[in-house]
Amino acid sequence: MADKRQHPPTVRLRRLAAELRRLRAAAGMTREEVTERKGINAATLYRIEKARARPQKRTLIALLDLYEATDAQRADLLAIQTGSNDQGWLRPYHSELPEEYTAYIGFEAEARTVRNYESLFLPGLAQTENYARAVVKGVWAAASHKEVEQRVQARMERQALLSKEDPLLLWAIVDEAALRRVVGGSKVMLEQARHLLQLMEEPNVTFQVIPFDKGAHAGMPGSFVHMDFPDPADPELVYVDTPAGDLFLESEAEMRRYKSMFEHLQAVALGPNDSAALVATIAATRD
C-alpha cells in the first residue's frame, strides 16, 4: 500500500513560511486582511505560514504582489518554492517511521550544528548499534522486531553526518546518569564508552558531562536539541521529545530560552578533557 502521509516540512519550506510571515508583518497586514484582499482561504494561508503546506506558484505570486516584494525577494522565494518539498534524505522504510521522527531526521540532515542535551540517554548520534537496540527495546516495549530494527537502522544511518566531507558539528552534553545507567548490560556499556572516547577525538565533536556532584541544574526538566543551518536565513529550530508528543519550536523567544539553557549547561559541565577522563573511569569499572 502506498504511503499516504503528508511529507514532513523541510528546512526550505520552513524558510519560505518564515519569509512570508515576515513580509506580511512588514506590510502591516493581518491574515484576515490578506484573505479578504486576495481571496485566499484562511486555513490555507495559516498552513502556508506554519510550513504545513507548500503554496502553489500562483498563490505565492499573489502574496508577493500584495506584500510588494522586491525583485530579489521574489526570485529567492520562487526558487525556494520550487524545491521546498525535496525529501532527498528519505529512505524507503522511512514511511513506516513516525512522521515526527522522519521530520527530525530531515532537519538534522540539513543542519550545520546540533547542540544536544540528554539527561538519561546518550545522544543518538553517539550511540553504538547494540546500545541503540537496547534503548529502543526498553523504551518501546510493545514494538515489533521489525519496528525496532527500523529505528536502529535509521539511527545508524544518521551517524554518517559526522563523517561526511563537510561534517555536522555536534556539541553534546549529558548528565552523568546517562553514562552510569546500564543499558543492555556491562559489555554493551563498555563498547559504548570506548566508542564515545573515539568520537570525542573528532574535531567536529564536543562532548561534555555534568557530574552528579554539580547538583541541580537547568537540564534536569528534560532533554532537547537545538539546530542551526548553513544559510543564516533558515530559521533555527529546537526539538523536544515529550511523552505527550514531539515538539518543534522556532519562535525567537524559544530560541533565546534554549540557547541560554545550553550555555548554562556548558558552564556547569566538565570540560571536554575532564569529561573524557570520567568516561574512561566509568569504562574501567566495566572492563
Automatic annotation (TrEMBL):
Q: For the HTH cro/C1-type domain, which residue ranges apply?
A: 20-74
Alphabetized Pfam families for the sequence: DUF5753, HTH_31
Q: Which domain of life is it from?
A: Bacteria
Q: State the SMART domains in the record.
A: HTH_XRE
The record, for InterPro entries, names: Cro/C1-type_HTH, DUF5753, Lambda_DNA-bd_dom_sf
* Protein name in the entry: Helix-turn-helix transcriptional regulator
Q: Which organism is it from?
A: Streptomyces mooreae
